[in-house]
Request: fold
Amino acid sequence: MRQFILSLLLLACTTVAAAVSPSGTLPVMYIITANQQPVTSREQKLDATLYVTAHGQYPALGSAANPLPITIRGRGNWTWTGFDKKPYKIVFPKGQGQKLLNMPKHRHWALLAEADDYLGFLKNTTGFSLSEHIGLPYTPRRVPVELVLNDEYQGLYFVTETIRIDKDRVNIYEQEDNETNPDLITGGWLVEIDNYETEGNIVLYEHNDYQDRIMVTPQAPEVLSTDQRTYLTAQLNMLNDAIYNIGSQQLEDILDLTDAAKFYLVQEIMTNRESYHGSCYLYKDRDSTANPLTANPLTVIPKWHYGPVWDFGNSYDRMDETFVYFNPPWRPQVWIEQLCQNETFAQRVQQLWYQYRTQKHSKVLDDINTFVSTITQAAKRDAERWQGAQNFRDNSDMPGRKQEFLSRMNARLQWLYSQWGEGDPTPIPTGNEPVFTDPLHTSHPSRLLIVNGQLLIERDGRRYTLTGQLVE
Reply:
């Protein structure tokens, strides 16, 4: 009898799922795994096929008769374990990257379920919009779709570029795993400040009263030679030292403070209390030689950069009137409290805050309105599909969810205004002026300038020609 009842319940659940179909207002992505195996693991990759229907500006990719090969597996941490609606990672075969939904061609993509977002799927959407308009060099692109997996409707998903080194993503040199050439191990580096202990992490300790442990996961390269690990560890320790050396020029020499301020402003507007605790990315390009025709070529020393942004799942959950680094729910919020004491960093934040208020906020609101109108019908179908599921978030009323989101966002902006005021209207330096050292003065960072049509090196307040002659 018990088995009979369980069978009826299973049939009922299957019937409910099957009764919900795509809204027809978004592209639909169809994935079928080999033998229709369920995707139950974040480690095990399953062979599968994929095709996407055309809709509006988005062309079809593949077809039911001719789908494209992929692999699929689960992804995420809490978003994987805490919800029935699961996120996935899909990868096209080597050499067969695809231009998916008008986004630049690539092999690696995420299907984000955003089942934890009870504010109309607006958390990541708005965090990414802020990143774009505030001007971080790269923000992952994303497009909403409806997903059908193994002939079962899965609801509303967001096809999102994963954070990887690529000319259309994090555009830096990509060094090889296990590299030992000293000229190549200087970059590019893509790392993540993480909150999970994983094999291969580099661990150091923040110079604060708590002596918080900082865990850094190398994302690219992934497998490090001894030389690579030694170099990266030294760089991270140098950055740690510079952040705590108030008033020193060293921090500006190693960290791009404008990008750091952009990254920070996004997190403060979004009240993202996990922003410097996990999914916090930094990158650095490879050192390179410029002006090879000169007798003493200059060496470009790229700085570390914060970004790209990624996870805003904890945004607007706590509306305390405080900064994200004060009394965070998870320790540590690495480096940010100390960074805010740096005069140049604080000035950049003030300049960006002025720009955001006067020029950018209206554009973010436009993005929000467009997004809500685009997904409203699909969000209703998503709610029908997952009603009663584990930790279900109901976003069927998108106008209501938008109103609640904007209410929280406006409250946050008003509080920041009470702290920062109008901001600083002074134009922000472009940040494009490269920093150089020459081989004979490697401890003295220099800047390349063009003055009256002449290329000069500025070092220690003095200017020199490329041949080293002092310019009076």
Observations:
- Residues 243 and 352 are 21 Å apart (CA to CA).
- Residues 343-386 form the longest helix (44 residues).
